[in-house]
Amino acid sequence: MERELSGKRALVTGASRGIGLAIARRLAADGARVVMNARHSRDALEAAAFGIEGASTCLADVGDGAAVDAMFAAVKAELGGIDILVNNAAITRDSLVMLMRPEAWSEVLRVDGVGAYPCRGAAGRAISAQRGGRIVNVVSPAAFFGKPGAANYAAAKGALVSFTKSLAAEAGRYGITVNALCPGYVETDILAHMKPEERDGLVARIPLGRFGTPEDVADAASFLVSDRARYVTGATLVVDGGLTMH
């Protein structure tokens, strides 16, 4: 039986671990040929891709225009183009605003937010050439509620939500949908270092009574890039167990 994404070509950024890796695995399981991207450590990226059917890897900084151009040229040479882009790459440089170094602000905006336009713009051009496709931008509840000690991250993700809506309005004529995916607290390396009492306090605020898994988020991504979401664009799909319902 043909799988849902058979024949589709996908690029997932920030795919060496956590949510990005889970999304890459899910899209491959759905039949897509997946290129997995990360900024650093080819060994770690190739280890993550091991065992994922049809997956290949590409190192590139998504905030660097020249690196992005080279990445898309390599993907086009390998796959002939792309149909799906999942923008998951992100970094953090947490600090109180009054103490934040200027480079910590600018680097997070460059990689996490609209400073990473080279990747999103190049993807838009590549996908529009196919006359249809899917773009998913991974954001955060910080985009809507702020995050003390991480104003740079919150600002980047907030800008990305607005960018998602604007690009959706522009790209619809080409048959491209553009949506945001907003995970809540997910069992990744970040939560692994949290104190037990802090974990318990956060879980108590989540109506479904648990943290999410990377696979929970990957399932939502699978929906947004599929034909089931063909009439969904400019939307933000929140996957947080009800934590931020409003």
Characterization of this structure:
There is one protein chain. By secondary structure, the chain is α/β, with parallel strands linked by helices. The protein has a single domain, classed as NAD(P)-binding Rossmann-like Domain (Rossmann fold, 3-Layer(aba) Sandwich). Helices cover 43% and strands 15% of the residues. It is built from 10 helices and 7 strands. It has helices at 18-29, 42-49, 65-79, 102-112, 117-128, 142-145, 151-171, 189-192, 196-203, 214-224; strands at 9-12, 33-38, 56-59, 84-87, 133-138, 176-183, 236-239. Strands 3-2-1-4-5-6-7 form a 7-stranded parallel β-sheet, with helices on both faces. Helix 2 links the parallel strand 2 (33-38) and strand 3 (56-59). The longest helix is centred in the middle third of the chain and has 21 residues, at 151-171. The radius of gyration is 17 Å and the shape is globular. The termini are far apart. The mean pLDDT is 88.
Highest-level CATH class: Alpha Beta
Q: Give helix % range.
A: 40-55%
Mean pLDDT: 88
The biggest sheet, with number of strands, parallel, antiparallel or mixed sense and barrel status, is:
7 strands, parallel
CATH architecture: 3-Layer(aba) Sandwich
* Strand order, largest beta sheet: 3-2-1-4-5-6-7
Total of domains: 1
Salient structural properties:
246 residues, 7 strands, seven-stranded parallel beta sheet, alpha/beta, Rossmann fold, 15% strand, globular
Question: Could you write a compact summary of the structure shown?
Answer:
With 246 residues, this protein is of the alpha/beta class. It has helices at residues 18-29, 42-49, 65-79, 102-112, 117-128, 142-145, 151-171, 189-192, 196-203, 214-224; strands spanning 9-12, 33-38, 56-59, 84-87, 133-138, 176-183, 236-239.
